Every structure is written in structure tokens, then in C-alpha cells.
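Methods: example folding runs. The two proteins below were folded one after another, and each record is reproduced exactly as written to the output file, sequence line first and C-alpha cell line second.
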Amino acid sequence: MVMAVAIIRESSVETIRTVCAHDCPDMCSLQVAVEGGRIVRIVGDPDQPFTAGFACAKVTRDGELVHSPDRLTTPLRRTGAKGTGAFAPIGWDDALDEIAARWRAIIAESGPLAILGYAYSAHQGQMNRGLVNGLFHALGASRLQAGTVCDTCCETAWDLTVGPVGGADPESVTEADLIVAWGADLVATNVHLWAKVEAARARGVPLIVIDPRRSRTAARADWHLPIRIGTDAALALGVMHVLVRDGLCDRRYIAEQTVGFDRLERAVLPRFPPDRVAAITGLEVGDVERLAALYGAARRSFIRLGEGMTRLAHGGQALRAVALLPGVTGAYGRRGGGALLLTAAACALNYNAVRKPSGPATTRLVNHLRLGEALLTLDDPPLRALFVASNNPAVTCPDAGKVRRGLLRDDLFTVVHDPFLSTTARYADIVLPAATYLETEDFYRAYGTYYMQYGPRAIAPQGEARSNLEVAQALAARLGLTDPVFAMPPERLVAELFRGATGAAAEVDVARLREAGPLSYAPRGDGAQQFRTPSGKLEFYSETLAAQGGPPMPDWQPDPEELRQAARWPLRLLTAPGYFQAHTAYAGVDFLRRREGAPCCVLHPDDAAARGLADGQRVRLFNDLGSVGLVLRVADEVQPGVVLVPGQRPDDEAVSGTVNLLCGDRYTDMGEGATYQSTWLEVAAWDA
């Protein structure tokens, strides 16, 4: 699809077509109306098929984010103790010169490994995120294993099962005959897919939601299965058991397109009859039977996989088990069927041109979720400098208390580039005012739909704000880096991304990219899922996992460490995105904070009554790692034994602290990811 990207002028109002850069799978194409140097309206682009003319309630308020009175307008230098937020303004040249001088001195004394710098997901642009990381790659600094706080577990498990390829086209969901949202709250995190699901439901296609929480998506579904946290693999294996028992497997597809099903059928599935699965998951036996019957009867079943089910000890096993279901019925072979986790692997750009312009091929790695551990314990050399852009790790990393203790080190030189004085920025030595996505030029590739698009800036940066790209290039110049990308304007940088691109990206006319509008990078073909595993097939049995000493087939068993925690603490944590505060990037919009309400936790009425707690009361959540203060909401949207905390909210909005102070930094079984949902705790009155 090609659509001209134009600036439309109506009297004094200009409308700019650009792209939403928030960390969201939809990556909407937007129309931004600007009048008198201010954003006055943001709407979805009606000419982009997935955006389909509407933007979510959060993004329509991004004009308030841009023009917030709380925006940083000038660089700042710390004048008081770390963490207190005491700063004084300085000029950009002074700030950049000081950063470069400190880094040069550290490199001379300790080598480049003493520096760690990165940009993360608050800006999804390929250049504004990629070039910051390219700067530190060229320096030979320690490198962040980014994404372990989010998606490395699910992505690794998918790759081991399906291969590094995109999943089902979300636009094909309208051709499905059964839709399953498995651990995915579409209303909160994938609202444009939700719109297409609603279109399918209008013609009679049922929606099943499998989720421990009665989310808004679950409440609107045709059927909600409130599964126990961490039992997704058992349910998927139970469904397979029934499919085999009742002759509902597509044996021809299994024989031609998969490997290892015979082993799974013999060694694993007999251990997951419906009665055992019901006992594990908390569902009724009849529910397990009914789910399997519905799934087995469908020819084009579409599963939307949520990432949250993998943020626990055996999350990789869960993802593998669920992602294999379409292979049992052959749904992967039909458009409208299959499973969708991510799409980005299908967009074969030359990312390394920006992310890795030079520098050593390998160096010391720092796992994102163990940033606090690295700051406190790494040696030979220790980390002496930290640069953070488009991220708020003092809130979003597990064991956030450890991150904060690391940031308090007097001998750590910290620079934060952010539009606001975030929790992390309060610990910095220098804070740089960052431009928002609406004030930057960039190129975007969606990770939950098959579109890519150039996004021009809608408005000039407010105050003295500068983009990640500008800061990376300015620091590169001061540090003597001569890679051409550090001197290229955005239009030349984006051309580098397409140099050597393959697949649909290779067909793009880069010279017209700025005017082209949204372009599809969907794989060509009949809609059948392609596999890029070592066998070239869907892998029920993974030789790769076997060689690594891991379980080669999906399974479910209780986790010993979780059992130990459950014996000490009676409640299990469930985290989920808030509807108006999905993550801290939206904290700068007062309207959205008020719509979301005060940071809260949700307890089942039985659990609240057992503790003498009432709705609206201030409560303390605590375990061995620490305690936080939130407002209690009593509701049956969660099951007994579960405490739900929506959103990742900064400290200054809560009674005290942020929920990740309670989450440990243990790894998942695959991908070394975060295990937020393997957290156990207690809740009591705040003043108890």
C-alpha cells in the first residue's frame, strides 16, 4: 500500500501524517493537527488499514505530553544528593563537554567496559533508538542485553518452536472461525486488533479469553477461562490430549510440516488428561473438554499470544506449548488461522548499519533485568558511567531497590536523557531534556502488525529538547568517532537501513520513502505460516533445546522455588498494563493519570475480608525484598490468592514505592527474561 505523506493546510492549521512511537504493537499512523506552534488534535489515519481512522485514548492526549508544563526545558547538573532531584540548569555545550570529558577519562583509566549506555523502548524509532546503541557499540562499551525485562523469554521460545519469523497476520483475524486471546488483554494493549476481532464477532466468530484476570477483554468475550497463573502449558497440553483422544488432529499436516509430535504424543500428553489439567489450572473438567472440542472443530483458529504468560519461571515452556496448538489442528496452514506473537522478524532491514556501525563483535554483556546487580557487583572493571535514554529502570526493572542502590553510588557518573524528571533521572549527575516522538524524524517498523512507515516530526522540539539521534551524534563528534552514520541526517540514515534489506523491504523505493506513507512488509504467499527452525518445520521436539540440556518438549510441573515462596507468602502477584497508564511514558499526561486513578492493587473480596481490609483503603504490599504502599480496590476480577497491580507507576503517584521493588531478578527458563509473575507477598493495612 502506498499513500502520500503530505502536510495538509486548512487555514492556519497544518495536519502532518506521522507515526506513533510508543511501545505498542499497533504502531499507528497518525494525523497530527498543529496550529500556532501547538498540537491541537491527534487522530488515527483513515488511510492506514490497521489504524483504520482511530487512535487510542492515550495517544490522542499526546499533545498534552508535548506541551506539559512539567517538561524539562534545559540540561541540568546535580547540585544535591543523588535521588533528591536537586539540579541547576546548564547549557547544552557545557553538558555535552562534561559528559565527553568524563567518559574519556574513564576509558583512559578503566577501559570502555567501565561504561554502559543504551536507549530502550519509550521511543520505537529505528534511528532514535538504534543510533544511541550504535554509539556505545562503536566505543566498545559494555552492552545491555535489552528486552529481558519484557520479551526475550517469549521471543526465544517462539524462535525455538516456529523460528525467527513473524506470526499470523493480524489483519487475517477477520477470516478466522475461532479467536483465542491467550494471556492478551487486547482492549489495553492491542486495541486495533480488538477492533478487527469485534468485526469478526459481528459475523458470529466466538472469542475465548484465557487469562487469570477478568480484564476488559475477558469481560466482553464470549467465554472467559480464569486460569491459575503459570498453568498455561498444562492447559495447552490438556487440549492436545483431548485432540488426540477424539481424533481431531490434522495428521497430514503434522506429518508434513512438524517434527516430534509422535514423541510428545507418547511421552507427555498421556500425563495431561482433563481431570488432572482441571486440578492444575483451577478450571472445571467440562471447561477443558469444551475448549478442546471448540478448538478441534475450528479450521482457522487464531490465537493471539500475550507476553505476560511468559514472565514467570517456566514462561518459555508455556509459550512453546500454546504456540504448538495450531500445528496439531493444521491451523498454521490456513490464512486466518495460526498464532501471533510478534511480526518484527519478517522486516529484514539492515539494522546493524545504525546499531553496530563499528566496534568489537563481542564484549561484556549486562542483562537488562539485572542492571542493579551489575551496578553493585561488576568488577574488572566496575561500571563507572551509565547513560540511559527512553527508559526508566528505577521503576521498570525487577528488584528496583537494587537498581536504586546502584544509582546512589557516588562514584557512578550517570546521565539520563528524558522529556521529564523521571524517577531514574533524579539519581543522575546530568539530565538532558529529550524530544518526544512528535518532535523527531524517524522510521518505524511495527512489531505487532506488518507495516513500516517514515514519520516526520509534527512540531519543533519544545524548549531546548533534543532527540536521541542528535545527542548520539553530538557525543560521537566529541569522542572522535568517525563512522559516517554519526554525521548523517535522518533521510540518509534511513537509506542505510535499507541497504542490503531483503524480503518486502528490498522492494521499497527509498528515494520516495518519506512520501510513501505506510508500507506493508508482510511475507508474500497464501497466508500459511512459514517455519525457520533448524528442521524447517514446526518443532514439537527441539534438538536445540536438547543440546542445551533443556527439556526438548513442552511440559508442566510445579516450580520448586515458587512452592517455597508460596509456603511463606500467601498471595501471588499478577502485573498487567493499566488502561490509561500502560507504562511510565504516559505519566506526563495529567488527564491520563486521573483517568487511571491512584496506583492500586486489586484483591478478591474473600482475601480482603480475611485481612480486615476495605475498598479504597491504603495498604502495604511486602515480602523479603521490600514494601510498597498502594490504594486497595476490592473486586472479583481476580481469583482468591492473587493480588493484581495494574501498570508500572512511579513513586510520586503512589502511597509509597513502585511494585517492582517486590519482584526478584530470577531468570525465566528460556531467554534469561524477567519473572515478575513468580512473586509472592502479603498485604496488610498501611498503618498496621
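Second run, written to the same file directly after the first:
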Amino acid sequence: MSRRTERVNELIREELSDLIMRELRDPRLEGGLISITHVEVSPDLFNARVMVSIMNETTDAEEALKALKAAAGYLHKELVHRLDMRRVPFLEFKLDTSISEGAAMLAHLEQVRREEGSA
């Protein structure tokens, strides 16, 4: 990955985080934490895969992901206005479960530690 691609990835991640937090008003996105964990832009800057972690207690993560996919056109349009780039990539949202998997692994390790401590 080139230095330019890395800069574009980080810039899109920062701007999308701000847009999702401040601009989107979808009830499927309320009541939880939505974190953009990674953005991967194609070499031609035509597409961007946006990995999101959704920690939401009120709605299902799949529903929140559907809301983000539905808002992809709006988010792309806002990025066009915010970024000084010739071509702003189209957004494809994917669910990143690594944070929740890591939390589950830590909970399991803590349980094993407690069981070994009591034995």
C-alpha cells in the first residue's frame, strides 16, 4: 500500500466518523457505539471498503449495518463536499467483529483465570 493510499484511508475514516456521529439521524444507529475500525481504498480510488464495529444494545448490529449501507450515497455526497480530492471512492460497509471477538476472548480468559485461582 502506498503512502498516498494510507493517507486517503485515514482521511476517509476520520471524515466518516465525524459524519456518522454528527449528521446521520437513523433510529437504527441510536443507542450504541459505532466505530470505524479500518478503511481500505482500492488502488484506483474508485471503491472503499469501510470496516465498522457496532456495539449497540438497543438494536441488532445487522440492522445498524443496513442503515449505514442505506446512507452510503448520502455519506459519499458529503465526502465529495468535504474532501479536496478529484475522485472520492464509493463506500462499501462491512461488519468488523474483531472487537467483540476480542472482548469475548478476554472474558473467557478471565473465567479460566478465576477457575484456576479457586482450584
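Comment on the second run: The helical segments are 3-22, 61-70, 72-82, 98-118.
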